[in-house]
Design goal:
11 helices
Length: 302
Amino acid sequence: MPTDAPPPTEAMVDIDGARIWTSQQGTPSPAAGGQPPAMVMIHGGPGLWEDFGPLAEMVDDLVEVYRYDQRGSGRSDRVGPYDIATAVADLEALRKQWWRPKLILVGHSFGAALALAYAVEHPEHVAALILISGTGVDLEWKEEHKAEAAARRSPDDRNRLAELHIQRAAGVWNEEIDREFCALTWATDFADRKHDLDRAAALYRAPGPNYEMNSAMTADWARMLLDGFADRVSGIAAPVLLMNGVGDPRPLSATARLALRLPNAELAILDDCGHFPWLEQPEVTRLTLREFLSDLLDEPED
């Protein structure tokens, strides 16, 4: 349900050698008083792009909402380095650019990992975390996710994906092939099996994923986890909402383990929902977010 907030304002912001695409919409909540926190939405991938327009419209009458494409992603410059520390530093630079002392970080998928990393590094600037379809702070979920995703694919889809992997390794690649590869890869993320391929195809945005960034960031996150990052999240005092769909091929157990580590967490599990709650269960997502924000900002619920 869109609100009556003004349309988004887009801008390119120069951050340490890269132009970062940003968008701002909504107004601060009067109930929050003083300098209320702003919401920042962090996309996943890594190496994809933000696609949070419908999600932002669910709450932009309660809170000012910022969206951005990370360095190397979407409409931002494809300029490295691609690592967690740089991603956190870029977000901190944006916070300063926006003159916002406190942030409500909304991280989707791998964006949840970046939100946690920022909260550990800059706890004084975090009012709350909303982690949507994240995978926690361990690597135990990966094999289960791989097996579940494979089980959801037809034999023809599995064979076609194998062919596309061979083409990519051989350097035979273009946007049309990339679109097909991404649609087949992402289709398993949706709970609705009848329309999963069409919905997955609709997510694609040229010039497509940054695969170099994806490999580098994923490896860096794994290194951080092996170095004990999980032990640091217990120091996050801010309220945390963890939202996951039952139909996500990534196991809920990873999110449950993270919830046990966080001192101030609540877990929202959505039925008939996969990896994209705001697309698959928009009304439940809207109500869940607004209830959490109303409690945080002392707003009346609607």
